[in-house]
Design a protein that fits this description.
By secondary structure, this protein is an alpha/beta fold. It contains nine helices and 15 strands.
Length: 323
């Protein structure tokens, strides 16, 4: 089969399109014939060496397609079933991928395979952020950085469903239109306005109950100044680079703030939680309450171009690779 592999970490040019053996599922596993694979920032971090992975490796933690083969002991699934999967060891940048059967979720008939690949990682991230890490309530105000990105657009929608006031940050007028369409009540173009000053103005000096920050280095410190006393900073990404070490006394001085650095794996640690989060996302999509935006699709052989597009922060919504 064809796959994308990284033999040595570096820039997008290290993504090599190669022929490798098609794997066979072991006990409790399934073989998925990949129809679409999600491209996520964690793939960029692993490719660059920011996150350590033994080489050579096939990137990709998110994909959807049809089951091609079942390993021993797998029940409740059959060859031909349409499924989606988020799994740290998936190796989804390939024509076929192996996954534990308990990490696979069936796709409803009216959710396309592309939508399944586009929503699982980013959608379940938005779900745990808004529903679990800081469970938004009516009357809360939240700040969503990168509000027109893949997670941002979904998070704005879920925050509005929960009754929160949403302030989003974006870089361009076109992205502002998308963020407002997703439910952002106020949108700050950080390229033109100091977002921290504007957040304080929009909240009458009070600040927000929670900041959802996937940007990291360039937004983190200023973001702490946007939070109301006893509010929460949720740092769930670092698209601009890693945050500098923090003296915990800063949290005290700024109002007894809470700080967390969550990751999706800990919020779908059980099968029940995976089914709950994915099932609610799929149901909201079917009901028209959640819209998944696919920005663009690249051929699998053009994985490097997909990484460049995502790293350049010029994308709005999901980037997919299509074998």
């Amino acid at each position: 089969m064809k796959a994308v592999r990284v033999h040595a970490t570096g820039g997008p040019e290290v993504l090599r399109f190669e022929e490798i053996p098609t794997p066979s599922p072991g006990p409790g596993e399934v073989l998925i014939r990949v129809e679409a694979a999600g491209v996520n920032f964690i793939d960029l971090y692993q490719r660059s060496g920011a996150y350590t992975v033994a080489t050579p490796f096939v990137p990709g933690q998110e994909a959807a397609g049809r089951i091609a083969a079942l390993g021993a002991g797998v029940t409740g699934l059959k060859a031909g079933d349409r499924v989606a999967c988020y799994y740290g060891g998936l190796r989804g940048y390939a024509e076929c991928a192996i996954a534990p059967a308990d990490k696979v979720v069936p796709l409803p008939g009216d959710v396309t395979t592309a939508q399944g690949a586009a929503v699982l990682l980013q959608g379940m991230t938005a779900h745990y952020l808004a529903c679990s890490t800081y469970p938004l309530r009516a009357g809360d105000t939240c700040l969503v950085h990168a509000a027109a990105g893949g997670v941002g657009l979904l998070l704005c929608q879920l925050a509005k469903q929960r009754g929160a006031r949403v302030i989003g940050t974006v870089s361009t007028a076109a992205k502002e239109v998308l963020a407002r369409a997703a439910g952002a009540d106020e949108v700050i173009r950080y390229t033109e306005t100091d977002f921290a000053i504007e957040v304080k103005r929009l909240t009458g000096g009070t600040g927000v109950q929670v900041v959802y920050d996937s940007v990291g280095k360039t937004t983190f410190t200023a973001g702490l100044g946007c939070i109301a006393p006893r509010g929460m900073m949720v740092l769930f990404g670092q698209s601009s680079g890693a945050v500098e070490p923090l003296d915990p006394q800063q949290l005290n001085h700024r109002g007894s703030l809470f700080l967390t650095r969550p990751t999706l794996a800990h919020y779908v640690a059980t099968r029940a939680e995976l089914e709950q989060r994915s099932g609610e996302l799929f149901r909201w999509m079917q009901e028209g309450r959640l819209t998944v935006r696919i920005d663009r699709e690249f051929p699998l052989a053009s994985a490097g171009e997909a990484h460049i597009a995502l790293a350049g922060r010029g994308t709005t919504g999901k980037v997919l690779l299509v074998p």
